[in-house]
Write a structure and sequence with these properties.
The chain contains eleven helices and 14 strands. With 371 residues, the chain is of the alpha+beta class. β11 and β12 form a beta hairpin.
Length: 371
């Protein structure tokens, strides 16, 4: 098995063994972390930061976690709601008046957070470069008509989620989502996670590695619909080469361009599993955490084509809530056991060609440590 570095409490030794096995099989480099009661019990890493296996994955190696970033975005909204600055049951237009256009006056903040707003696609941008124009994308969403009556159905808002929540946060606070997160979450916690990576950190970034036998032209594909046919991808095509670019690192695409490691991802999300505090820092009240696991929608997701349970900001799976990212990263929190588990990696797996259970293997190993 591959050598794994870091700290692991003896009762969670199965997590270290699981990561070592993955690094000896499918992974090139990866990190995993487990927090219980808002404190670290596992913080491990291993392998290599590059495809040539010449640069070691270090304690502070960063990786783009793609849609695992959505968990962080949702947390920011819940913090504002807990402070009384954002009403989850209010119309989005109460904070963003232009958003009422095209029949969206009844779209609620909680609809946006639960992927039920009817805006799964960005109708305007056709290139990755256009995603860097925040005001342009936000204006396009404000003018867009919903695909269904908001609140009556769900469809995964892959890119629009971050712009929608981010613009609400900007209207409420006067700060961009990345800035708000850095000042109100990352800095108080000492979390090494970034939405829009500042210059000076590039040397720590492990590039994403395309799935085996594919190149960095590999793109996120539209999922299969309920009838087994692939849903038409009407939005921007994002390739591995785009996600590895310096422009992507500097941009603000909050649904998908967060950079961190398992330690930082787990630390941030552990507050929601631990009644609002992590590492001795309180981010929100115990009651303010509850929307994270309160069911908003259950049924077939129109975009993913699979049965889903969406809460206010997260996917819910049994007692746990969280979400993963394109290629394999994952974070999940269980409020009953006050545990959060995170896994991030550079070797992507194409789920159309190969099943990917890596994150779940780390999660199940963590649960074994609770027994």
């Amino acid at each position: 098995m591959t050598d794994v570095k870091g700290f692991c409490e003896p009762r969670f030794e199965a997590v270290r063994a699981a990561l070592a096995t993955l690094l000896g099989k499918d992974d090139v480099g990866a990190s995993a972390a487990v927090y219980v009661d808002g404190e670290p019990v596992v913080d491990i890493w291993g392998g290599y930061a590059d495809v040539d296996r010449s640069v070691a994955w270090e304690r502070d190696t960063l990786i783009g976690v793609n849609s695992t970033t959505k968990n962080v975005v949702a947390l920011c909204a819940l913090i504002l709601a807990d402070r009384g600055e954002l009403d989850l049951s209010a119309p989005v237009a109460a904070y963003w008046p232009e958003f009422a256009a095209a029949g969206k006056e009844k779209v609620l903040v909680r609809h946006v957070l639960s992927h039920t707003a009817g805006l799964p696609d960005l109708s305007g941008p056709t290139t990755v470069e256009e995603l860097y124009d925040w005001e342009g994308v936000a204006a396009g969403l404000a003018a867009q008509a919903p695909e269904w009556e908001p609140g009556t159905a769900a469809g995964y808002h892959a890119l629009s989620f971050g712009f929608l929540v981010g613009e609400i946060v900007r209207r409420v606070t006067g700060r961009g989502l990345g800035e708000f997160f850095a000042e109100e979450v990352a800095q108080p916690l000492g979390a090494d996670f970034h939405i829009g990576l500042p210059t000076g950190h590039d040397h720590r970034v492990a590039p994403l590695i395309a799935p085996v036998s594919l190149t960095d032209e590999y793109a996120a594909s539209a999922p299969f619909g309920p009838e087994g046919t692939r849903r038409e991808n009407t939005g921007v095509t994002i390739r591995v080469k785009d996600a590895n670019s310096s422009a992507w690192r500097r941009g603000q695409i909050p649904a998908v361009n967060g950079f961190g490691n398992a330690r930082s991802v787990a630390l941030v999300q552990s507050a929601l599993a631990n009644q609002g505090s992590a590492g001795g820092v309180r981010l929100l009240s115990p009651r303010g955490c509850e929307p994270a696991w309160q069911e908003m929608f259950r049924g077939t997701d129109r975009v993913l084509g699979t049965p889903m349970c969406w809460t206010v900001g997260f996917g819910k799976f049994g007692n746990a809530f969280g979400w993963g990212g394109w290629g394999g990263s994952l974070v999940a929190s269980d409020p009953d056991s006050r545990m959060t588990v995170a896994y991030v990696m550079n070797q992507m797996i194409d789920r159309d060609r190969q099943e990917d259970h890596r994150g779940m293997e780390i999660l199940m190993a963590a649960y074994s440590g609770l027994r």
